[in-house]
Design brief:
The protein has 489 residues and is α+β, with helices and mostly antiparallel strands. The protein folds into four domains: 136 residues; 68 residues, Roll (SH3 type barrels); 82 residues, Alpha-Beta Plaits (2-Layer Sandwich); 154 residues, Jelly Rolls, CATH 2.60.120.10. Helices cover 52% and strands 18% of the residues. It has 17 helices and 16 strands. It has a five-stranded antiparallel β-sheet. Strands 9-16-11-14 form a four-stranded antiparallel β-sheet, with helices on both faces. A hairpin with a 2-residue loop joins strand 1 and strand 2. The longest helix has 33 residues.
Amino acid sequence: MTTPVLDLLHAIEQASPSSLTLVGVLCGAALLLHILQLRFAGKGAAGALSLFKWLLVLAALRVLEVQVLRDTWATFMMVLHGVVIWLAFRAILHDLYAGVWLARIQKRPPNRILLNLLSFAMTLFLVAYGLRSVLGVDVSSLLTSSAILTAVVGFSMQDTIGSLFSGLLIQTEKPFKIGDWIKVGELEGQVTEVTWRYTKLTTFAGNQVLLPNNAVAKERVVNFTEPFPEVSLVVPVPAPLAAPPVRVKSSLEEVLRKAPLVSKNRAPRVRLAEITLDHALYRLVFYVDDYEDVYAARSEVLSAVWYEFHKQGIEFPMARRRLVTGPRKAPQKHGDLTELLSGVGLLEGMREDELELIVQCAAVRTYPPGASIVEQGQGGTTMFLIAEGEVAVARDGRELTRLGQGDLFGEMALLTGEPRQADVTAVTPVRCLELDREAFRGVMDKNPQLVANVTRVFQEREAQMRQAPRPDGEASAQGLFDRFRRIFW
């Protein structure tokens, strides 16, 4: 009487020494690779070592089956082959593809749903093959007989199955990925995980929310991270009607320029959006590099606006009414500033009341020594008149000249929109008058002499360009005059 154990021992006795030696060498090599795999755990080489290990085990089983056991333990060897093939497939899928190719080379998270789907399909194939080869079960008839049961189960679990297929579609179409900030319906959060059944979000409050994938597929999804991570913010700021727009805009632009969380990749903008009975509404349009900083950036900008308005003497409007019974207060005069403006060639021939209007529509700016007033290449639509102090004008890091009281700079940016051609830095404490394009346009419409002054400025600019070569990229005098005509006429 024979037993499987006796048959195994007899097969080993009949096997050739070379076959047994080969099986031992293959198993020893697989054991060595397993030790190296543990040594390099967490590194890219571990995936390749795992695959080679299971290939060596598979080769050892094949030699053992063909050269040693032959027909002995055939069923057991078939099952063992299937297990090792599944382990080798798992090493290719999880260790090499997900762990090395995606995580280390592509630098992106693996698609867990796709990995699980492929693993399930491989398992199903090996089980079906084993049932057919070992037990002789007809898999096709088994599937046919269970069709009714499948329909009943599918109807009772339609929500769960819907979530599974929605999760597969999300992973296939990739409307968002792990780490993106999204808005699903009215819920905002950062995607931390996407599984078969749900999408996990972490909100600003730190709460974790599990959204069924079929609910995500039905809702309107907004991705704040794609196609670019910068997020646009529009912050309304009310200001009093008495404050000139150039003064308010200049203050708000200064706030946006200094705010650390405002993106430097895209230029912020300030727009006068609305004028009501009791206030003027300005809109600050700027970008934040990361959606996670949206609320912090909004708070930072609004706080800086409060302090800047307080420094400039601009009061926030309040919904109030008051009855004035006393005599009307005479408008404040700025004799020193109007006198300086009268000596500027661009404003030659203007009446005192027109100069006073320019002062009232302008913003008075102060700068400490070393402060940057304008930067080379920077856009702008304002010009500056120095009332007190001295500034240095430099281009490409080389100082060209110095300007003092009564001197004007930045006029070409106001007239033509040309980028600033030089850096202007305060040498001493500086007080200057900043005039914007809107105020200049209003004055020019009332005084034709101003048009003749502007024409003379361009003629002088053309004469200067003939005497000295202009820098690369600087427009000609005629080109600048054409820009002026398009803007003001």
